[in-house]
Design a protein that fits this description.
Helix 9 packs across helix 10. The protein is 44% helix and 11% strand. The chain is α+β, with helices and mostly antiparallel strands. The strands form 5 sheets. Strands 3-4-10-7-5 form a 5-stranded mixed sheet. The chain has a 3-stranded antiparallel sheet with strand order 6-14-11. The chain has a two-stranded antiparallel ribbon with strand order 1-2. The chain has one domain: Cytochrome p450 (Orthogonal Bundle).
């Protein structure tokens, strides 16, 4: 991924702009190639990367232009991947759909996945959080990710879907293995052994998860219950219903949003509160800041750092012409540090308002799991601050991070409570 900072044509000459006094990226070694985390900015906000064969889009208005134009920048990106993605893994996948089919299916999903369903989860999330933290009561140090942040979202999403409690661990295992395997840079040129290996592991885990979800979905069709999968199989808009593959792929998408995004959001926010003690004190004293704290965490350390699009025709953006059938990598995390949109973008401000961060994307593909991630983040963070007057990163055990270049998230986080 080094070429994203310094490609062969020298288009990305970096300049320092308002580097923060406390630089979490340098302090903990977060993705050295993610220049925006270090107060740097490219000379051009749209540039071709010869190493990967993809186009990088970094700026905020440029990112909005791409994700806001699905007719030109399609979500059907799998057709351009060097390794084919076919069959049930992609059939009915909202993430790979464009309007009008995407709009029709999203209406069906929205009919089942309502705001009430999300809000009704709050007591369950609170109870689970306390139960998991009770296991480390009295200890002066523990790994926050292993203790709380990994198991909680897995249980919540499994409960939501109606998965038997005894099988919840399967989802955590699948998601962990998929995230850990995503270590190789994607290249449209020569496919490296690491890239093939990572893709194979991801596909194996995805297929296992989808096979399991198909069985549960079939059971819901036979005997509907009070859970989201049952509501999805029964959802109907204008006489149309979701197919089994569409139901299963929505469940997969919800797992990704409800697990990966939430785990990284929680770990990243605790890391930020540790790195900015004045913010920690301010939020502890004024809990009304919790919603805007979560939004600022999504902006400052965006869990989903990038999203992919495929051009359907030649297009010009920011004065640069991108040909047809090109893979475009939209760096949402970089856009969230664009000083053209955000005043003092390197400052972590828990009261930033407005904060039109793109951590959940925007437009037709705005993250369906965003309300759940936001609510879960606020509930858990409030409980952590209530239970631990002191919650600091263990200086003897540095945090580690997800290696995938298109994510920004804590993987392990040892904390001290005294």
């Amino acid at each position: 991924m080094e070429s994203q900072c310094n490609n062969a044509s020298g288009l990305l000459a970096m300049t320092r702009k308002g580097r923060a006094v406390t630089n979490l990226a340098d302090r903990w070694g977060i993705h050295p190639e993610h220049f925006w985390l270090r107060g740097q900015w490219p000379e051009r906000t749209v540039a071709f990367d010869e190493k990967t064969g993809m186009w990088n889009v970094y700026g905020y208005p440029e990112a909005l232009a791409v994700i806001g134009d699905p007719a030109t920048f399609s979500n059907d990106t799998a057709r351009l991947f060097p390794v084919p993605v076919d069959g049930p893994i992609s059939d009915g996948d909202l993430l790979q759909m464009d309007p009008p089919e995407h709009r029709r299916q999203r209406l069906l999903v929205n009919h089942a996945f309502t705001p009430k369903i999300v809000s009704d989860l709050e007591p369950r999330i609170s109870k689970l959080t306390h139960e998991l933290l009770d296991k480390v009561a009295g200890r002066d140090r523990f790994d926050l990710m292993e203790t709380l942040v990994y198991p909680l979202p897995a249980v919540v999403v499994a409960d939501l879907l109606g998965v038997p409690a005894a099988d919840t661990h399967l989802f955590e295992t699948w998601m962990r293995k998929m995230s850990e395997s995503a270590t190789a840079d994607i290249s449209l040129g020569d496919v490296s052994e690491d890239q093939e290996r990572a893709f194979k592991v991801t596909m194996e885990q995805t297929e296992q998860m989808l096979d399991y979800l198909r069985v549960v979905t079939a059971e819901c069709r036979k005997s509907p219950r009070e859970d989201l999968l049952s509501q999805l199989v029964q959802a109907e808009v204008e006489g149309a219903r979701l197919s089994d593959d569409q139901v299963v792929n929505f469940a997969k998408m919800l797992l990704i949003a409800g697990y990966l995004t939430t785990t990284m959001l929680l770990g990243n926010t605790v890391l930020c509160l540790d790195g900015f003690p004045e913010v920690d004190a301010r939020v502890r004293a004024d809990r009304s800041l919790m919603p805007t704290l979560v939004e600022e965490s999504m902006r400052y350390l965006s869990p989903i750092a990038a999203t992919y699009r495929a051009t359907t025709s030649e297009v010009e953006i920011a004065g640069v012409t991108i040909p047809k059938d090109q893979l475009v990598l939209v760096w949402l995390a970089a856009a969230n540090r664009d000083e053209r949109q955000f005043a003092r973008p390197q400052v972590f401000d828990p009261a930033r308002d407005p904060n039109p961060q793109l951590g959940f994307s925007r437009g037709t593909h705005f993250c369906l799991g965003a309300p759940l991630a936001r609510m879960e983040g606020q509930v858990v963070l409030n409980i952590l601050l209530d239970r631990f007057p002191v919650l600091k990163v263990d200086p003897d055990i540095p945090p580690t991070f997800y290696p995938a270049p298109d994510t920004t998230g804590v993987s392990t986080l040892s904390v001290r409570t005294g």
